[in-house]
Design goal:
Layout lengths: L7 E4 L8 E8 L4 E4 L4 E10 L5 E9 L2 E2 L3 E7 L2 E5 L1 E5 L5 E5 L7
Antiparallel strand pairs: 1-2, 1-7, 2-3, 3-6, 4-5, 7-8, 9-10
Keywords: Ribonucleoprotein, Ribosomal protein, RNA-binding, rRNA-binding
Subunit structure: Part of the 50S ribosomal subunit.
InterPro entries: KOW (IPR005824), Rib_uL2_dom2 (IPR014722), Ribosomal_uL24 (IPR003256), Ribosomal_uL24_C (IPR057264), Ribosomal_uL24_CS (IPR005825), Ribosomal_uL24_KOW (IPR041988), Translation_prot_SH3-like_sf (IPR008991)
Length: 107
């Protein structure tokens, strides 16, 4: 997967189109990423009690994963944030390095 945990991404389609956020978690097997502040859903949790006796439960708002094809990597070029595709190249030792297609810089 070309998007990794900690990357700054922008949503390119869907209800949150145009929003930017950091990747909290990546799920490569499902081709999905969890982006902070994007695809927020309300979850109903069952009421219960903690060890101290306080009430838990209710309606909790949390992020849900989005498909990796719906986000694009954001890189900085001359002080501006630019969305770009990601490519790969190999260095002299044979290590795989991610490259921003639009700017040509290593990520």
């Amino acid at each position: 997967m070309k998007i990794k945990k900690g990357d700054l991404v922008q949503v390119i389609t869907g209800k949150d189109r145009g929003k930017q956020g950091k990747v909290i978690q990546a799920f490569p097997r499902e081709d999905r990423v969890l982006v902070e502040g994007v695809n927020r859903v309300k979850k109903h949790t069952k009421a219960g009690q903690t060890a101290r006796g306080s009430q838990t439960g209710g309606i909790v708002t949390t992020e849900a994963p989005v498909h990796v094809s719906n986000v694009q990597l954001v890189v900085e070029k001359d002080g501006k944030k630019v969305v770009t595709r990601v490519g790969f190249r190999f260095d002299d030792e044979g290590n795989k390095i991610r490259v921003a297609k639009r700017t040509g810089e290593d990520i």
